[in-house]
Specification:
8-stranded mixed sheet; 7-stranded mixed sheet; about 20% helix
Amino acid sequence: MTTESLNCDIAIIGAGPAGLSAAIKLKQLNPDYHICVLEKGAEVGAHILSGAVLEPSALNELLPDWKNRGAPVTTEAMEDDFLYLTSARSFKLPTPKPMKNHGNYIISLSLFCKWLGQEAEKMGVEIYPGFAVVDAIFDDNNKITGVRTGDMGIDKNHEKTSRYQPGISLYAKQLLLAEGCRGSLSQKIIAHYGLDKQSNPPTYGLGIKELWEISPEQHQLGKVIHTVGWPLDHQTYGGSFIYHLENHQLAIGFVVGLDYQNPWLDIFEEFQRFKLHPKIRPLFKNAKRIGYGARSLCEGGYQSLPKLDFPGGLLIGDSAGFLNVPKIKGIHMAMKSGMVAAQTIHQGDLSAYQTNLEKTWVWKELYAVRNIRPGFQWGLIPGLILAAIDTYLFSGKAPWTLRHQHPDHTCLKSAIFFNKINYLKQDNIITFDKLSSLYLSNIHHDDNQPCHLHLKNPNPDIITYDAPEQRYCPAKVYEIHQGKLQINAQNCIHCKACDIKDPFQNITWTPPEGGSGPNFLGL
């Protein structure tokens, strides 16, 4: 039971780039604002995961002297390669205009957010890590006036343990939702107010990332590589990223659109297979894997944006869906949306938020690339051709807007229509299994906390799609034992794929106890 109440001017849910940028901007506008940021991770940056290449436009606006402030933004992107892979060969293609990275930086987003949090605290922002928000508080006029956090330290019999800490009610004049992709409270509020009634269905991707220490001979500081093609078929949207960071580190990852059709597809295993390609495998000679994580990405773009304001608050960052898919970048958009939200709050009219955003480069950028992602619904080659036409012939101003037709969970087809994919056994040198990878996520869930993955039907259909949650989950949370679905909630790394892709929409992801989950700091 919630026993303590706090009050502030502005409550921000999520200490990611959007939420922290909003907090800093608010303090710049009025140092007297009382701002509280609630973060479900054990520390700022713990639940933050991205490739990541930072376009510094928003950072330059927010903190022009960021270099002097010691921002962990030091590795300039020096060279771009864009490759098409077959099973045995690679072909270098012209780098698409949106994917050129001159002037950008390769960063660890978790470390960047940790630094942003420190800058916010210097300005007087109060940040509370380890508090998972579970519900909104409404007044009699259906306006949100605050949020509630979950209790901590309740065992499976709902008895208090020695580490029990009750949740709190945080009341605020304004609320900013900055939970990131598929935020649980954001989903509730979008549904409660019908904010997505005029939008296309959202579409998502699942990104899996590993961090390696590689040999100096294989390292090329600042090099950026993206690939399409093998090991995915041409009907499945996705590709890889390879970023050479400082200290001979390599960030390598694989992203697959969650609108894929084949229920036998295992995104984690496709990633492991990708690393064995003749072009990629040499990178791992005398190398050591030091980090692992996974996260969903918002890929709906312009067409899938919900209404951005609601009574009492605003959606910012990936809670709204601000990601430029062709660029594979959203940090700059998340930051700018938070900054515009701060300015809107300061002006005093929440309904002006979208209008204010439409006057910025965020809106122009999203609109210009609106047709790229939906163009791939017809396959890889048509998608690349349509992207080229839209980008180079029409400069993003084509007289049409393609639609996202279906939610991702409706796209799976019955297992009987596909052959089972037989993946190679891992060698534990370059390729690994899911459980050994979890160790590198620094994951922690207390065994006696209630399961945060809820089933609407406790006995779901595991026949039609052969229980695909076993494969789209990158953490081995779901297993079939004796014909029944077993949930290993302690393995969850908070990627949200199950909440998105489950074909029956039977799985609901809710926040576990505050401070639980992975710790991606440095990844």
